[in-house]
Amino acid sequence: MALLGRVCLLLALAVCAYGIGASIYGVRTGRWEWAVSGRRSVYALAGILTVGFLILEIAFLRDDFAFNAVADTSSRTTPTFYKAAAVWSSQEGSLLLWAWLMSLWSSLALFLTRRRIRDVAAYATAIMLGFGGFFIALMVFYAQPFATTSPTPSEGVGLDPLLRFPTMMIHPPMLYSGYTLCTIPLAFGMGALLARRVDAEWIRVIRRFAFGAWFFLGIGILLGARWSYSELGWGGYWGWDAVENAALLPWLTGTAFLHSLMIQEKRGMLKVWNVSLVLATGTLAIMGTFLVRSGVLNSIHAFGGQTLGVPFVVLIAVLIAGSIYLVVTRREMLRSEHRIDSLLSREAAFLANNLVLVALVFVILWGTYFPLISEALTGQEASVGPPWFDRYTVPLALILVLLSGIGPVIAWRRATLANARRNFLVPIGVALATLVALLAAGVPVKPFAFAMFCCAAFVFGSIGQEFFRGMRARSAMAGEAPPTALVALVRRNRRRYGGYIVHIGIAVLFVGVAASTSFQHESELGLSPGQSSRVGAYTIKYVRPTASVTPDYDSSSTQGGRELSAIIRAEPGVTLGPDTARTGATLSLGAVLDVSKHGRHVTTLYPSEGFYASEEPTQGSVGHLIGGQPVSHVAVDAGITRDVWTAIAPNIETPRLKRIVTLGNKTLPYIHPGEGMVAIAALAAAYMKSPPQAQFHLIASPLVMWIWIGGLIVVGGALIAIWPAPSVVRRRVSARSRARTERGLARA
Amino acid sequence: MEFLIAVIALVLLMVVILVISAPLRAGGSSTRAEPARDTESGPVGAGRSEHETEHGASARVGVDRDAIAPAERHAELEAAREAKYREIRDTELDYRTGKLSQEDFAATDSALRAEAVEILDRLAALEGEGATESEGATPRDA
Question: Are A278 and A299 in contact (CB under 8 A)?
């Protein structure tokens, strides 16, 4: 099957080369059948890469260790659930996933635009196939997903334990969908510049895909934050890590574009700005992939090797140079058709929002690439940490949230002062009321948090007012009951009200961020069973340790296995079975924590740490069974008002426990892992009998839950905004609008 | 196993060639160019093939553009019309939710409606052209 996979890649590369040539030839000569043939190359590419991806996926599920990618990132002991996801944890598999997703999204985009802007679409086809060709060439020449080894290894290395987390199943495909969707507006933007058709038509065509890219990137970022909070054991959801930033950057420029494109659609303005944002978003998406896959920057999320740096740098340089050349040479036709009429207009608010977003992008870009810049200039790699990012991003975030409340209540073109006063009265009132309520409730004054709460309250006030007034107007016009009018209002104006819901979600999310960072209580300390510690208002008591041992095979299937099971079960306190998170840890050591508040029991938590087998023979026959990277399994009591977050780092490096491993290494043969497991069971029993002090990380944070709720509101609002209106409804609406337009003219 | 893989690879190659070359093959045989292909290759193949029979391949470029332009222009004008209708609705909603004064609304609304009518006129003109062309073409086709 590996051979078929390799054939697929070669065929895909040939199809890309043909499609690029056919598309360019078709559009340059006007022989459109060639352009259509080029477009069909993208469909064919999607088919070929689907076959290739299925081959690799099947190899992972069948534990076919003849495939290097399978042997390096999966194993028989990796739970099946995670074997399917292990495909994209490998460098080669992730490149294949990228190219496959890009071919699918490109096919969809080209199919939906097959009867519009053919010249632009033909150039876009060539550019999309160029991206496809680049990634396929990487797989053919640098990181081959179908490379095999002989003789076939009997076992694989296994999936990185850090990735054995449910959201990791969908986080990479979401992020990659976002990245690959970002390249579609880029391709059409470049196509529009090459075809010299820079009116609003190409913007209308790609709007849905730009929104899709923003949507999937947003979900990917949110899932990544959730993984960081629940799996990494440091207690945070955002650490300004290079790879996190790399995903955030195109999301920010995409957000700016989604706002400014409305100005071009409505007023024919900001053409240079829009096309620049589209090109920047696509380039930043490629840079994001580069960061994850090149290993050029240190990151907890970077899972690539060091071999792909040069090709990516060349691609990024070509993209930047090409974008600048196209924008500069087409600047005359990119002139705005109108000017901003007033600073008190929605255009001005959107422009301000764009400037803030781009300022954020520059700050984050500088901070992310600072290690590379400093190394290039001084020869020494230096990096900036979260405090540096916070210093600049916090004020910008405040302005951004405030603007998300201002934009919706200002009219296009020009708002009068009287109208503005009337529209801002309620939001300002809500913000001031919030401030008074916070002070009256005795909440400790934290300037950033208070400012964010007031800005968010302003947003709730302005958007609540928008919904109320819209509902009232609809109710008066159509004679509908308020709830019916509200639903009809949103259904008829999905983009507007979906966007408003997104604004609410963003405000909610920032309330969660502000509260959880400003009012967090944290403690890192060593505890022995029976000892307790206070974190904020909570008392957390280490009641007793826990231990579970999981053989890397079905222990009931052989006589030796059954004997082993009996031995492990005989150890007091040691459980035979998978770790609580079911990640395939050989040994899992944890704690039972009693959480109480003012003497009253709140909950019981069970944090643990998993120890995994490694493939390192020098660690010995017993040592290698727990010699892999230990991974923390966090225990959280999540609530609407606060989270109690706990993690444990058990100490297995005590002389007594190390002696068991050393003795096992000396006496037990490497080739009998079952016997090694007896030593691991003995180690677990010794740990339970006399548990050494364990390190605990305890956090009590308010309103963390609202970060995830805010994220879900954003997703819901985005779905409403992006959801296509049924064609029948659209026709009916159009007919009505047409009749109204004609009636209006008749009156005039 | 290797034989099976070779067969699958060959089948894949054949399918790819068939998919990619379909518009070229359809364009090459003028008499078989059917309107049904509109879903994929649109009027491109039909227009080119028809003209190729009459004037030969050298005149392809101009004829293609003539054949494609109306369909494409129609789709684009329809999209522009939808966008303009949406803009009119947005303005009306802005007015009803108190963001626009009566005077500003009246001025903006009439400007937008005039722009919408301009688009409608262009659409009507294009549809008229199409109707005339098909009326003229019918006797010849028959």
Answer: no
Query: What is the rounded distance in angstroms from the CA atom of residue A278 to the CA atom of residue A184?
Result: 9
CB A213 within 8 A of CB A281: yes
Nearest CB to B101 within list A33, A48, A416: A416
Task: Give the pLDDT confidence of B4-22 residue by residue, as tens digits.
Answer: 888 888 999 999 999 999 8
Which among A257, A256, A232 has a CA at the least distance from the CA of A244?
A232
CB contact, 8 Å: B29 with chain A? no
DSSP per-residue string spanning A34-64:
HHHHHHHHHHHHHHHHHHHHHHHHHHHHTT-
- What length does chain A have? 748
pLDDT in tens, A605-644: 999 998 888 877 788 888 888 888 888 889 999 999 999 9
**Chain A residues 116-155 with CB within 8 Å of chain B:** 116-118
Q: How many other CB atoms are found less than 10 A from the CB of residue A257? A: 32
What pLDDT is attached to residue A18? Answer: 96
- Angle at which helix A494-518 crosses helix A447-478, to 10 degrees, equals 160
Phi-psi region of A280 (alpha: psi -120 to 50; beta: other; left: phi over 0): alpha
Give the gyration radius of chain B's Cα atoms.
Answer: 24
| Residues of B in Cβ contact (< 8 Å) with A18 | 20
Residue A135: how many other CB atoms lie within 10 Å: 26
- Report the SS3 class of residue A65: coil
According to DSSP, the β-strands at A538-549 and A574-576 are: parallel
CB contact under 8 A, A15 and B117: no
CB A284 within 8 Å of CB A253: yes
Alpha carbon A348 to chain centroid distance? 30
Is the pTM higher than 0.90? The answer reads no
Number of residues in chain B? 142
| A11 closest CB neighbour out of B16, B41, B76 | B16
Pairs of residues, one from chain A and one from chain B, whose beta carbons lie less than 8 Å apart: 165
State the distance between the two ends of chain A, measured CA to CA, in whole angstroms. 72
Q: Return the amino acid letter for A403.
A: L
Element (H, E) at A308: none
Question: For residue A642, how far is the Cα from the chain centroid?
Answer: 24
Segment holding A593, helix H or strand E: strand A587-597
Instruction: Give the pLDDT of residue A14.
Output: 96
Q: Residue A530: which of A594, A588, A608, A575 has the closest Cα?
A: A594
- Residue B142 has a pLDDT of 30
CA-only gyration radius of chain A, Å = 29
- Note every long-range contact of A525-529, with CB atoms under 8 Å and residues 24 or more positions apart, other chains counting: A525/A695, A525/A696, A525/A698, A526/A693, A526/A694, A526/A695, A526/A696, A527/A693, A527/A694, A527/A696, A528/A691, A528/A692, A528/A693, A528/A694, A529/A691
CA A490 to chain CA mean position, Å:
28
**Residues contacting A664, CB < 8 A, separation 6+:** A620, A621, A622, A623, A676, A679, A682
Query: pLDDT (tens digit, 9 = 90+) per residue, B68-125?
Result: 567 777 877 887 888 888 888 888 888 888 888 888 888 888 988 998 899 898 888 8
Query: Chain B contacts of A410, Cβ < 8 Å?
Result: 99
- DSSP class of residue A408 equals G
Helix (H, G, I), strand (E, B) or coil at A239: coil
Answer yes or no: do A477 and B76 touch at CB < 8 A: no
Which residues are CB-neighbours of A680 under 8 A, at least 6 positions away? A549, A586, A587, A622, A625, A626
Residue pair A35/A26 in contact (Cβ under 8 Å)? The answer is: yes
Residue A66: both structure tokens together: 């003849």
Angle at A515 between CA A513 and CA A516, to 5 degrees: 65
